[in-house]
């Protein structure tokens, strides 16, 4: 037992043990849920037609969610931030953590500036496109006017 503790129960192994434990728990829950559900029947003598006892709106999946339960990207980022914060307690402290955090903050700030610049560029491009459309419509009208004027002048000369 001491050999097991010495080899496996180190601070570095806690995340691995936790992840494997959570995975094993999820497998156990899923297996138990599916084995005790009405889709699988072990004894047809006691219940020859088990699906007839299900209600009309029965859905064999166990994940039921409404429209409000679906995550938006903002909710996902918020929950991911909580998850990273939770995991930060299990990660060993590095002497470079503060420097890495500062670098990440600079990167995030620069990405935000780039996003703002791209948004500004997109809005300016939309304005240019709408202006170009107006110029194109005006040039079509001018060509048609020139064509009509030339036709009118020819008809006057022929009279």
From TrEMBL:
Q: Provide the primary localization.
A: nucleus
Membrane-crossing segments per the record = 12-32
Regarding protein family, the annotation reads: Belongs to the DASH complex DAD4 family.
* One Pfam family of this chain: DASH_Dad4
Which BP terms from GO are recorded?
attachment of spindle microtubules to kinetochore; cell division
Q: Report if keyword Coiled coil is assigned.
A: no
Q: Where in the cell is it found?
A: Chromosome, Centromere, Kinetochore; Cytoplasm, Cytoskeleton, Spindle; Nucleus
Keyword vocabulary terms for this entry: Cell cycle, Cell division, Centromere, Chromosome, Cytoplasm, Cytoskeleton, Kinetochore, Membrane, Microtubule, Mitosis, Nucleus, Transmembrane, Transmembrane helix
Which protein is depicted?
DASH complex subunit DAD4
Which organism is this protein's natural source? Furculomyces boomerangus
Q: Does the keyword Cytoplasm apply?
A: yes
| Record's GO cellular component terms | DASH complex; microtubule; mitotic spindle
